[in-house]
Amino acid sequence: MERVILHVDMDAYFASVEQQINPSLRGRPVLVCGNPLTKTVVASASYEAKRQGVRSGMSIPEALKLCPDAILVPGNPICYAETSRVVFSLLSLFTDTLEIYSIDEAFLDVSRTFPLFGGKGALGRRIKETIRKKTGLTCSVGMAPNKLLAKIAASLVKPDGLRIIEEKEVPELMSDLPVEEVPGIGPRLASLLSDWGITTCGQLQRLGENFLITRFGLRGRFLYQAACGFDNSPVVPTPPQPKSIGHSYTLPFNTDHTDFLRSVLFRLAEQVAARMRQSSFHGRVVTVCLRLDDFTTFTRQRKFASVPPDGRRIFTLAWQIFSSFTLVRPVRLLGISVSELSAETPLPLFPEEKTRENLFHTVDEINRRLGENTVFPATFLLEKMVKPPVPKTHAFQFWRFKHSDTTRIPT
Amino acid sequence: MELTVDRKQLTDSLETVTSVVPSKPAIASLSCVLVETKDAEVSLTATDLETTIKTSLPATVSKKGQILLPARKILSLVKQLDDKELKLSLAESQVNLQTSSSTYNFFPMNVEDFPKLPKFSGGISFSISSSLLRDSIQKTKFCIYPEEPRPHFRGALLDIKEDKWNFVATDTRRLALVQTNLETKVGQNVKCLLPYRVMNYLSSLLKEGSAEVSIGKNQIFLKVNGTYIISQLLEGSEDFPDYWKVIPDEKKQQIATVSRELFESVLKRITLFTSERYNKVKFIFSPEKLSLSVSNPEVGEAQEKIAIDYTGAEQPIAFNPDYLLQFLQCITAEKVIIAFSGEKKPVLMRPQDSQEYLYVAMPLKLD
Question: What are phi and psi of A57, to 5 degrees?
Fold first, then answer.
């Protein structure tokens, strides 16, 4: 069966959504910036601004120099996520194999379904039309035998384009394709390659797989295959809702310092809780993951009647689980996740609980408007206050042995 | 030590005490049952350090003494034997269990290793009917999550003021209360938190008659049908929220009356269409009619209508159906009263014929 992968990439996504919400912005250069108080970089620029040379990731002063009449708009992530959900639900009408790649990009495996819509071209046009009708947004669609080429195809025809790459035209297309068009080759690698006089994928191919592997290791194989337009990675359907919400953190140093681990665990619990609140989830299972300095990894989970999106409660449960581990070596990574999520939870009965939920709502709202961690539990400070532990030299162990009582940290 | 006991009685008594034996004991002797002789009786004791259960049964004692036996092993063994009588004896370094045709030898553990039983001292003592205590436990137990990190929600609150008995449990989203007037006043007011596990032990022990209860500072002592239970109480009875505040006043509510049997069977069918993730059932109370519906993208949709006694305005409310089913399964009344005042307000439910059992559940958000 012919493999047909379709890539949808929304055009200047955040800026276009803003232009849809506020018609007065349409046709004008719009810069969406991270947050209104610390407007440092351009998160998304409308095509009107892009034409004047503005790129995402530029600093605001730099962008304003290029495009002095640009309109700055603070980002509205909830609205973008909501629009994305609409777009993705539209896309799911065309196949059951939909991989949500980022907030504004998706891969669809349409190998089995494209004939139903009257062929590749017709399907591509239909998808663009559906999205435009329902959301007013434009997108670029690329279709090709694999994900890599589909993404390249879409990026070649931005904005509002449709490009179909057939199997037989791949060698010719790749031979002249500039290396920086390949997803995975960033500006640094591109400039390194150009120092070697390599600017197109054809030239990269001619370096040979063995040379690239010798020079770049495993990445070399990817480079060679990408240069040939080869990619066999499958489209992995994204489940409609997350199965679990989790955070993990690689510690700045390996340690078995209980106070430090405790404060990290607390922060992770708060982060998990905040994300659960974002989608108003409750959960049932708490999993704690622990990696020691020799990379042995342990996970333990426990099921509870209900895990509310409350950092302190999640921490208490996670700490119970964590305490059941016997630490034989210093810890390198800690993680917490909550699973068996459900969206429907009864309202709290007691006024004290209501107050707590209101508090979370307020804190979340402040952090949403003014940036992450504008308001945070004071316990987060502990993580910074705890002194880096003394390395376990022989002397230290001896000291610890002699003063075993004083090194025990109250839990 | 040497004694002869009835096998059936021994099995029952072992089952009673073994319920407390932890599955992963912290010290080896906790997995054992202590067997002690006393005149024409033998007593069995097991503990998990928090709760101790002691019971006794008649025996023919020919030599006094004490032994420790592995609780679960001896229970399984005794259950599987089919003799009428068993002979238990301690000879040199082995414990022998003999029947007419078989002999089993256990290596005994050191009796000294068994934890010393907590001494119960002082406190408020009273006697209470077993059925009231059993009912109170069974009608509130389902609201408790024993894994809850806050200790005051890990058990039920026993709140006695003079002759008013209040037994209440909550998981902060719902609350069940058994209230009644005691026939005899209790000397002092009592406010203590009974751990979930003790409630479990008790609900299987309590049958007929009455139970002797003594409540100390942080211990409870119960004597039920010749079995003694001593347990630690949960800390934090003063942290238990003021439950009267959240129980709606029935007079200020809209009242609907519905047949319990019908309501339960409809809910059971409707629940088939819910799943872990989509567990919301939408109720619409309208004059003389209650309609229930559920829409679950993972399964499908269901809708049922039932006749109710209700005259107020139309009121939609959403519920987790399990919250209602667990309540309905605890009662036998013919009709149930549902009192509500809004989609985000607590809903009060009770059997129509009694004020003694109240159940308050919070609705889900309607969207």
Answer: 95, -10
